[in-house]
Amino acid sequence: MSFFSVDNLSINFGGIKAVDGVTFDVKKGEVFTIIGPNGAGKTTIFNLVSRIYQPTGGKLVFDGTDITNVPPHRIAALGIARTFQNIELFEHATLLQNLLLARHAHKKSNFFSELMFLPSVRQMELEHREAVEKAIDFLDLQQYRDSFIVNLPYGVRKVTELARALCTDPQLLLLDEPSSGLNVEETEDMAFWIQDIRTLLGITVLMVEHDMSLVSAVSDRVLALNYGRPLAMGTPGEVQSHPEVIRAYLGG
Amino acid sequence: MRFQFKTSYNQDIRLFKDRIDTSWYGLLAVAVLAVPLLMSDYYVGEATWVFIYAICGVSLMALVGYTGLVSLGHAAFLGIGAYAHAYFLQHGVPWVVSVALAVTITTASGIVVGLPALRMTGIYLTIATLAFGVIIQEVFSRWESVTHGFAGMPVEKPTIFGVPFHDEWAFYYLCLFFLVLVLWMTRNLLRSPTGRAWIAIRDSEIAAQSMGVNLAIYKSIAFAYSAGLMGLAGALFAHKIGYLAPDIFTILLSIQFLLLVIVGGLGSLHGAVFGAIFVALLPPLIAILRDSIPASMNEAAQAMNIKLLAIIGEGIGNFLKKPGVEAGIFGLILVLVILLEPLGMYGRWVKIRVFFSTFPMYRGATFKRQKSYMRSERLR
């Protein structure tokens, strides 16, 4: 039984088959990357996995549980966290508040104890803070703790989003174009962090990425998509030299 | 400039930042407690209005400022609270129980109104709450067995556990107590998961969802909590105004509440209180100016022997007597605030504080707004 498997996944938007019969499985502890030209359906797969879209066909199985019909807000508690292609941070809150929100799936308090801020709530808040500080240390975000997201530069926001995903204590991390908008140096940092996330924290990573240097540096296996259909799967080298993939990117 | 040295995570959780902060709030508390000893009944009464409006402000702030759901029907919640409280008092229900019932009923109606909020966003939700407000106002005027319609409904003075709160000063302290309670509870929510979930919903629903926030539940909580506070404010409002009629709880009142939170500054509890001071004290200020400007200008004209001054004073006085001037001034201020200070009075307050705390080093561009276009295609 594989750790996370996608079986014959499809979704149609009207007549457009955005994802059409995609099947793959991710082993525990690997970095699995999905590549493909624009509009290939990569982000759509992510939105299907994080349950924002309802698939028209197929099955998603995570760690032995069928998550095809789980509501989106239950996904985080199961251990799946994600980042977004166009940064979806809570802009008018501080970085700390953003990360603390990621602990939402682990909250144990109810509304009335929060209204009174009972000692148990305070205790829980301190525990969450401890967990958040680990992510802050891991990604070197100390100096931005109390800054509002609107005042932070793009590169830092990108890292903040990664930190927020880590704060949910995920087993499977979905990274939607972690390097988009980053400069070369920041992209290299990102590559190191992704490797650390896999080796030090033991988190399985499913990634969508365009930067082939990052893809070959960190991924164990790569799946190439075009028009919602799988073209090739294998090691980064194999996929990059696959004739179908070359044709999809270069035409001909 | 003072630097806060943090040594424990508790420092980020507690209500007041540090000792200096605490002592400022202590001073404020002393000043507020001393008002009835130093001022005449008229001013104590006006200050009571500020407290009641501040509770309304906190209520709307939770919904509009923190959760990002704009409501134009909050006067209806105020009315439901007020009528329910007055009705129960008339039927001999003890004060505390009556308030609790009024709050429960408004909370329940808040949940009912909140249900469409789970499906509608932005302007559509606002229109739905507007419709709710109009319907409830109609109910107030038609359901005569309970509300006595346009004949009006007198409200007894509050007596709690046999202790009368009939005097202006006693009622002042009662309202102050509830305002502090409401501020404390709301602050507690804001520093725990519920408040963060609200902020998350306001800033990005999709990310909130992916982090485990159940949108339906937290939007409903926001509506219920906001309506409940409005019910509490309504009970106090009923006592303060003394006589309930359906034409009090109009859309104009709802707009005034919205104005309150915008002028005060969206997304801060300070803003709710600042806005309340502004909204509650502007009408009496206009009334005072209406009488004092012509008189003082007339005096000046006689002293300096310039007739023009007297004519100008007379003109301003007459202008201020015109119907609708108050609404006009409110509107003008709203426009100016949105143009010049989008963060409202709280934003201005923060700027002044930063100016003094960094005094010789203040940089003019600290609060300069930057344009950024980072979210190209947003998921809905």
Could you characterize what this model shows?
The complex is a heterodimer of chains A (252) and B (380). Chain A has helices spanning 42-49, 75-78, 95-101, 111-116, 119-138, 154-166, 184-199, 212-218, 236-241, 243-250; strands at 4-13, 16-26, 31-35, 57-62, 65-66, 80-82, 172-176, 204-208, 221-226, 229-234. Chain A has ten helices and ten strands. Chain A starts with a strand and ends with a helix. Chain A folds into two domains: 1-79 and 170-252, Rossmann fold, CATH 3.40.50; 90-169, no CATH class. Chain A is 38% helix and 23% strand. Chain A is globular. Chain A is of the alpha/beta class. Chain B has helices at 19-38, 41-66, 74-90, 95-117, 122-142, 144-147, 168-190, 193-203, 205-210, 215-241, 251-264, 269-304, 307-321, 325-340, 344-357, and strands at 153-154, 159-160, 163-164, 243-244. The two termini of chain B are 44 Å apart. The mean pLDDT of chain B is 89. Chain B is an all-alpha fold and 380 residues long. Chains A and B meet through helix 2, helix 3, helix 4, helix 5 and helix 6 of A and helix 7, helix 8 and helix 9 of B.
In short:
The complex is a heterodimer of chains A (252) and B (380). With 252 residues, chain A is an alpha/beta fold. Chain A contains 10 helices and 10 strands.
Main sheet of chain B: which strands, in order across?
A: 1-4
Terminal CA distance of chain B? 44 Å
Distance between the termini of chain A: 39 Å
Read across the widest sheet of chain A, the strand sequence of neighbours is: 6-7-8-3-9-10
Using brief descriptors, characterize the structure shown.
heterodimer; A: 252 residues; alpha/beta; Rossmann fold; six-stranded mixed β-sheet; four-stranded antiparallel β-sheet; B: 380 residues; two-stranded antiparallel ribbon; globular
